[in-house]
Q: What sequence folds into this?
């Protein structure tokens, strides 16, 4: 049953996201599927790093591309902290960082990462590009 539900969610992702954003149905339906929690996302990075390490893949000085990055920059921050030269985030629904809620989320996520890594140097330069 779970596989069938996931298949339906994937197949109708655009419709779900449209309803989610435009009609504010996110509080009733699929709230957990499309929510970003930087601490949970951050907790997966050691596994990603371990998998890459087992394949003898060194992140240092590489350009990393994350497909489907969603709302979060946490993986990008982690890859940069691990030595990546550059991180490119791609998502089929670019985020609008001009609204107050998105700006707040971005600031909270950045504050969380800086606090977690306060003993390490972290410099961030963004170049947000969107296509219409």
A:
């Amino acid at each position: 049953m779970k596989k069938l539900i996931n298949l339906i969610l994937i197949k109708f992702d655009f419709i779900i996201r449209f309803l989610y954003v435009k009609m504010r149905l996110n509080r009733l339906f699929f709230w957990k599927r499309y929510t970003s929690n930087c601490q949970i996302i951050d907790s997966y990075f050691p596994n990603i790093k371990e998998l890459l390490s087992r394949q003898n893949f060194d992140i240092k000085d590489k350009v990393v591309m994350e497909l489907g990055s969603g709302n979060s920059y946490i993986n990008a921050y982690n890859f940069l902290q691990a030595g990546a030269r550059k991180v490119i985030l791609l998502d089929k629904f670019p985020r609008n960082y001009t609204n107050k809620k998105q700006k707040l989320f971005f600031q909270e996520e950045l504050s969380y990462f800086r606090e977690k890594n306060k003993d390490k140097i972290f410099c961030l330069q963004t170049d947000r590009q969107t296509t219409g």
Notes: The CA atoms of residues 46 and 115 lie 18 Å apart. DSSP finds six helices and two strands in the chain. The chain has two domains: 1-35, 41-132. The two ends are 37 Å apart (CA to CA).
